[in-house]
Fold these 2 entries.
Entry 1:
Amino acid sequence: MHTPPHTAREAPTGDAPYDVLVVGGGIIGLVTAWRAAQRGLRTAVADPAPGGGAAQVAAGMLAAVTELHYGEQTLLGLNLASARRYPSFVAELEEASGHDLAFRTCGTLSVALDADDRAHLRELHAFQRRLGLDAQWLTGRECRRLEPMLAPGVRGGLRVDGDHQVDPRRLAAALLTACERAGVTLHRARAERLALDGDRAAGAELAGGTRLAAGQTVLAAGSLSGRLPGVPEEVLPPVRPVKGQVLRLSVPGPYAPFLSRTVRAVVRGGHVYLVPRENGELVVGATTEELGWDTTVTAGGVYELLRDAHELVPGITELPLVETRAGLRPGSPDNAPLLGPTALPGLQLATGHYRNGVLLTPITGDVMAEALTGGELPPDARPFSPRRFTRHPAAVQEHTA
Ligand SMILES: Cc1cc2nc3c(=O)[nH]c(=O)nc-3n(C[C@H](O)[C@H](O)[C@H](O)COP(=O)(O)OP(=O)(O)OC[C@H]3O[C@@H](n4cnc5c(N)ncnc54)[C@H](O)[C@@H]3O)c2cc1C
């Protein structure tokens, strides 16, 4: 699908409302705004720092198959559908923005370091096969032939050639440019409160007092989506922050190519992955911590990541450590996103993408454009309606009494 971009437009003045106001300009809010503008909707984004958010920390794995978890088969369908859209999405966004997204179709290798990990990975492989997914079992020797920097102790692994990667920072920057070129108006301010007009959402009040009127408001504020004042309790999304710490190393010329694909493992119950970019960056992630909105990088977090990554690929200790950072995944109760209309007329959600927000960016844009123009989610996206969590007002009163 390629819709010609609209020309940049002036911000509507006075009472002239936007068709769509997106609260939050992370990758999910921006892709929603871009697709809405392409459909001819007058669209604005409110965010004090658009293009920021969790994408500045994320590794950018497009890991529909290697991130498969038991009980998440419905989410798997959405993840695979988004993964299939990635090549054409990247081509379209690169053309629209003039940015290179560093999309690499390099595949992923999940390895086991001991007998327990191996048994666990074997089970996962059987599950993947039952679901018809493409994953190939390799012996330890075959893994090391593919990736010679792997530790000699690697006991086996799963080769998944369809799980790729993209640079999330470039994705965010490209979406911002594409939005501007498509005529999306950016308000660089925080939304302080959802505006209501009778029993409808009607835009938002921004820090500084500006009120933006809009026919439809999309709440896409990442891990803060459940905190916007004015949103009635029964439609407030149950989204929470899940902290992740990540390291960035660089691979100097003599060591390149250090790894040719994403390599991941479960070490002592924790997930560790190494994502090598073509520009020499090597991303090592990530911790998973339930600590509220804390984004402190801790000595313990860095230590654990380096210890586990070193067990997997001993040579990493030679590489320069160039960045340590923590970000917040917007987690939902079932680890799946909340997309589309809520029980409050005029309010839609695009949030709760948890550990797959980068992967789910293409499909989220398409699904939200459908919901904003047609009022309904396309059939494949209906399991992700926010209504699965809508609480009855009476139950909310009882709960909060
Ligand atoms: C460590 C880590 C590793 C990850 N790795 C991967 C990966 O490999 N693959 C993958 O697919 N995903 C990954 N993710 C997940 C992915 O980054 C997120 O799911 C995704 O970035 C969420 O995007 P978002 O736009 O919903 O939220 P955010 O990125 O949190 O953006 C929300 C935006 O809303 C704004 N905002 C908040 N409140 C308000 C308000 N009141 N008014 C206006 N604006 C507001 C903020 O300023 C922010 O810009 C990872 C995340 C982390 C933290």
Entry 2:
Amino acid sequence: MPFTPIHMGPGILIKSLLQGAFSLMVFGWTQIVMDIQPLIVLLTGEGHLHGFTHTYIGATLIALVAALSGKYLSELGLKFLGVAENGSSVRISWWVTFTSAFIGSFTHVLLDSIMHGDLAPFYPFTDNNGFLGVITVATLHKICLYSGVLGGVIYLLLNKKMFS
Ligand SMILES: [Zn+2]
């Protein structure tokens, strides 16, 4: 939070590299589940903006929740998007679901910890956030954007058959 979609850039790059071993849909669902807590804090004005959900322990629990809730939801989403080939529906294996959710929640904490001063990613072990400001927010956003573009290009190059 506050801008969940920037997390999709690195997700697209990871998708282009891992292909079928990674579900961008589950990854995206995980980004949404991650930011439900900050969203509630923003709306109600109560609580710690990036609280327990934005720690690596919290992200582990979020990944489990996002995977369990996201597998069938993502399969349904892909069906609506018409991604399924030959009229059959897309199946996302549990292995791919959990991998994608864990990559999703951990990269989310990592990216957010660079730009948000209230994050304590290693809580309860330390309140220190050594990642804060290692790169500027502008650079971080550029990296997220360009990684998405790069991932899109790689994906299209590796899946040339979609042009034929
Ligand atoms: Zn967040």
